[in-house]
Each structure stands twice: as C-alpha cells, then as structure tokens.
Amino acid sequence: MMNNHHHQCGHEECAHNHHRHQEDEELEHSVYDEEMNDEESIEDDDTSKVVKATAPVKPSTLELKSELVSREPLPLQQRPIACIVVGMAGSGKTTLMQRINAYIYEKQHPSYIINLDPAVLDVPYGANIDIRDTVNYKEVMKQYNLGPNGGILTSLNLFATRFDQVIDLIDRKSRTGFDAGMLMTSSLSSSSEKKKNLEYVFIDTPGQIEIFTWSASGQIISEGLASSFPTCIIYVIDTSRNTNPITFMSNMLYACSILYKTRLPFLIVFNKIDVVRHEFVKEWMKDYEAFQDALSKDESYSSSLAHSMSLVLDEFYENIDTVGVSAMTGEGMDEFFKIINEKSKEYEETYYQDLLEQEKLKQTEKLKQQEEDMRRLEQDFKRFNTASKKAPTEDEQLQEFLQNLKMQK
Question: What phi and psi values does residue 326 have, to the nearest 5 degrees?
Fold first, then answer.
C-alpha cells in the first residue's frame, strides 16, 4: 500500500516539476542559464570553470533591476514566507523538502524552492533555483586546493555574491503570481486560469549545518531574505537519534545558539516520527522532572552538565514551537504549515519591528549628516565670498582719504 502511495506521489511530483519548469523557465534563465555548458564559459577569466557563465549581467537581468528600483514594496501580508531549512547531517532535510514539494503541489500552494547544497548529486524535488547551476563544486575544490567542506563553503560564498538577484527573482514572482493551471493536473487546469500569489519560499541548506549557520555567506543569505520577506528558521531533528537525553540536550543547545544568532522566528521539526514517536521529547521539554528522571539513568560526567543546562533551557522551551512530522508518510504536514503561517505573524511582531526601528535610526543619522553637510557648505561659501572681495585700488584709497578730510572739516 505504501509503495503504491509513493509511486503515485512520484507521478504527481514529476508532473508538478514539469509544470513548474515550464512556468518558471523564462524567469530563471534571466539570471541562471541552466543550458550553458563549460565550453561556453568565459575563457579569459581564471574563475570561469568555477563560476559558470550564467550571465547575471544579461540585458533581461539589468532590465529587471531597473524595474525593481521603480516598484513600491509589497505589503507585508502579500509577501511569501521564506523558510530556511537547517539541520544536522542525516536528519532528513532533503527527504523533508521532497515531502514539502509534494504537499504544496497537492494543496496548490504556489511556492519557490531553492537548493543551496552544491555537493548534492541529485535533488529529488523540483528546485526553481539550484546553486549547482551557478557554481561548479568540484572545480572549486580543484582550483583552490580545498577539501569537501572548504569547497562547499567557498561555493556558498561565491553564490552569496549573487543572492541579491535571487531576491529580485522572488520579488518579481511575488508580484506576477502563478497561473492556476500550472499548479493543477491537466484534468483541472481548464477550470481556472486565475493568478495565485507566491505563498512560500523554501531554502534547502548544505548538510554540514555549521557551513551555513556560522559562515558569512549564510548570514548574508539569511539577513537578505529576512530584510525582504517574512522569514523563519526550520530546524530539523532526527527523532530516532535523540532518544538519549544527552544527545537531545546537545541538539537543543545548538538550536538555541542558532535562534539567538539569527533572531528569527524558530520552529523545531522532529522528523522520522514513523520510526520513533516524538511524544517523549515533548514531555522532556514541558516536564523538567521527566527529563531529570531520564538523566538519572546516565551516570557519566556529562549528565551533571545536562542537569544544570536543563534549568537554563526552560525559558527556551517555553518560547519555542515544535512539530512532529514524517517525511516518508507525510504525517504532521498540516500542522507544520499551520505553524509556518503563524511564524509570519511572529516575524511581523518581532523581527520586522526591529527592522523598522533600525531604518528609522538610519534615516535620523542620514538627516543629521545632511544637516552637517549643509552647515559646512554654508561656511565654505562664506569663506569663499570673503576671500573673493577685491582690495581697493590707489585711486579708491585716495578718494576715501579725501572724503574723510572733508568730513573732519
């Protein structure tokens, strides 16, 4: 039964990916020319084999940029929700992205999916933008003499230099919308041709979590998205590997560090609940005594540290949302998307307000600087006028002297 389900799901995803490719082909190729091969790269540039000549300076892209300058920002409620998916290697991020792709197609939620892992061999979902179309990961390692992790990090750095164009593409698609027929099967496409606004943007990050969360390029990408769209962090955890309370505590500490570094709305996703149910984890987060009982079975030196840290993390648990999902069966996906929509409101109430305050401070500083520049300009004009006054000639001096004599008489 499950095999039939996956077989059917695979057909739906293939159809969805085909429609998505047709609908987005012109938009994507304005920046990322997927058909450009290595022989078409710029031969004179040393980095031509590393960064493919995908022509971010094509006329269509330049026109897009000039068009964006004149456009007013969309209301916050009309912007798509950007979800950055992070997690430890093996937590099931890619499988979850495949499930998300199938779900948004089934529910007809117009979405954009971005792959930021340059080392992945195959992406089992339809990615609208793929870092592999822009950066050649193997050539990066070869040219810069790097290892696997260094190659991923450098590839991400190179891609981050063009991420403003990715944001421009998402912004454009947010305004133009999707054809309803592109989201439906052929049997339903004739029933509606209305445009549907872009609702979600999902970003799949590299498997090595620290490469994205603790790198400059990861910060650039996260802050770039958060400054333009409601953004949240989705932290994926392998439930089956967190039955040990020490391992669970380590994962929570890492999640806490990411939360306080990004300051973005945060959602913890306990994946693989078809293997191990996640109720015990939720109990540990809500009931301090239950977690202490689990720790009491471990007499290692690390258990005493976990006892102390569990008290510190109580506040973290109270303000964090969690959901259990199965990327294999699709269980929990309705609740997953429900919480994501709530994260959009949380973004508006917290992070977005901070952005507005920062913008006000920048405007205030800018006005002060303009006033200071005007004051200096006026002083320069006064000095110039004083210096430009001509000295009196000898005849003028003589005439002034005679005039003074007459006045004295």
Answer: -125, 115
